[in-house]
Design goal:
Elements (H helix, E strand, L loop, with lengths): L6 H9 L12 H16 L5 H15 L7 H17 L4 H12 L10 H16 L4 H10 L10 H10 L4 H5 L1 H8 L2 H16 L9 H16 L3 H12 L9 H17 L3 H5 L15 H17 L3 H21 L1 H21 L3 H16 L14 H11 L3 H14 L4 H13 L3 H14 L7 H10 L1
Helix pairs in contact: 1-2, 1-3, 2-3, 3-4, 4-5, 5-6, 5-7, 6-7, 7-8, 8-10, 10-11, 11-12, 12-13, 12-14, 13-14, 14-16, 16-17, 16-18, 17-18, 18-19, 19-20, 20-21, 20-22, 21-22, 22-23, 23-24
Length: 464
């Protein structure tokens, strides 16, 4: 360090060990390093009052100690930044960091989104004073990365990529809003740009997490556009990577999710059952049990849907073990694996002929999913439990209930291809041609013109 007595240099280094929105608390090593750096910042002399306030806010996080539940740390962090904001209400940096810290305390089960709205209100004045402030753009987008709020941040999303045209994550962030609104072409555009920029900004000698993160959103958007060939090319690009991969939750998520999505979204059950686990081998999967669980979920569900019950049961046992490991690392990811495990169990029961218990298990998985929110690392669930519930209800010839399940998915994830089709098909099965026409029209309008999957062809035939 060129200025070893610079408090804010230590402050900045310490801040990098806190990831408020990622549900990945620092490891023991990272925690101790972050704490040490914060202490060094506080030890420096000649701090301004503003710097003292920012260092004090940071210290509140570390003072809580390390536990697998990061909640108390984040609450203290938010309180510290709120105190700093009271001292310096007109400071755009303090206001931006306060918005971030407050946002990190939001309860996914609170569907009033009170805290997210509060965080947005804290950040919004920054853009009035500094219209191209990247932090305010970033946190406003995160605060609105929700089904009912996304439309309010559309203008912010459109402008963010313009103010930082070479920064991979800034180029990617607008797609959080585009994804929430089903604007798939815009998501493809921004994530293509983000991935290209990320290759110019590696993480040392490793491919950056931002490259892989953009590829996951890109593959998801292509699948919703009815273009699985383009999604498959994204997967092929990933397979051709020879360089080291940045060890990060987002990297592991993409590596597991993309091949699983491609198989599951197309109901290619044998392909889903054969998804590779722990690929590539050079990635440290043991650090990310919830990411390995994605592959196991695909394999179990794919096996159950293709009548391979013994295989499905074996993979389900792996999911049970991974759920325990994921819960130990992060309550959020533990719950996500629980949803996958319950969904896979439901379809195994269904394949075994136990329809009553299968439906009860699937309903329980969907109910648990409804208490969560989409994590920033993902454009959407690998396969929503509520959508799987709709599929099961259609198998049971209960289209009215199935329609309600698909409609719930569309309320949470507008423009999901399979739920649009499911809503149309379940309406059609009830004899409600007008409602079916509405959903099928939305579907064929959304997808690429040359998309020719059986589901899209069915919708086109109905509309003729």
């Amino acid at each position: 360090m060129q200025e070893p007595d610079c408090a804010m240099a230590y402050w900045g280094q310490s801040m990098t060990h806190i990831h408020p929105l990622w549900s990945d608390p620092p490891s023991e090593e990272s925690f101790q390093l972050g704490l040490s750096l914060a202490e060094k910042a506080a030890m420096q002399t000649d701090l301004t009052e503003r710097e003292e306030a920012m260092v004090a806010a940071l210290q509140r996080y570390w003072a809580e100690g390390r536990d697998k539940d990061e909640g108390p740390n984040l609450e203290a962090f938010a309180d510290g930044w709120n105190q700093a904001l009271k001292q310096f209400p007109g400071d755009p940096e303090i206001r931006s960091f306060t918005a971030l810290a407050v946002l990190a305390t939001a309860d996914p089960g609170d569907k009033s989104y009170r805290v997210q709205k509060q965080a947005s209100a804290i950040a919004a004045p920054v853009l009035t004073e500094v219209p191209d402030h990247p932090g305010a753009h970033h946190y406003i987008i995160h605060a609105h990365d929700l089904p009912t709020l996304a439309g309010q941040a559309l203008e912010t999303a459109r402008s963010y990529g313009d103010i930082a045209p070479t920064v991979p994550h800034a180029l990617h962030m607008p797609s959080h809003i585009f994804t929430r609104l089903g604007l798939w072409e815009k998501s493809v555009e921004m994530n293509t740009r983000s991935a290209k920029a990320a290759l110019q900004h590696p993480a040392g000698d490793a491919v950056s997490l931002h490259y892989l993160h953009a590829l996951d959103y890109l593959a998801y958007a292509y699948l919703q556009l009815g273009n699985p060939e383009a999604a498959a090319e994204v997967a092929a690009v990933m397979e051709r990577i020879e360089e080291p991969l940045q060890t990060h939750l987002a990297s592991g998520y993409t590596l597991a999710a993309v091949p699983a999505r491609i198989a599951l979204e197309q109901q290619r059950w044998q392909e889903a059952a054969d998804v590779a686990v722990g690929s590539p081998e050079r990635f440290p999967w043991q650090k990310f049990p919830a990411m390995e669980a994605i592959s196991r979920f695909s394999r179990s569900l794919g096996a159950a849907r293709s009548g391979q019950n013994d295989r499905a049961a074996a993979e389900l046992q792996q999911l049970v073990q991974l759920e325990a490991a994921a819960k130990e690392a992060s309550p959020y990811w533990g719950k996500q694996v629980a949803i996958m495990q319950q969904s896979a169990r439901a379809w195994l029961l269904f394949s075994q002929g136990d329809q009553e218990d299968a439906l009860a298990a699937m309903q329980a998985a969907a109910a648990l999913e409804a208490t969560t929110e989409k994590h920033a690392v993902t454009p959407g669930e690998v396969l929503p439990a509520q959508e799987l519930l709709g599929d099961m209800l259609m198998e049971l010839d209960r289209p009215a209930e199935a329609y309600q399940a698909y409609a719930a998915v569309l309320g949470r994830s507008p423009g999901r291809l399979n739920s649009l089709y499911g809503a149309g098909r379940s309406a059609e099965a009830q004899g409600n041609k007008a409602l079916a026409r509405t959903h099928y029209t939305d579907l064929v309008t959304m997808v690429d013109n040359n998309s020719g999957s059986p589901r899209i062809e069915h919708a086109r035939a109905f509309l003729q």
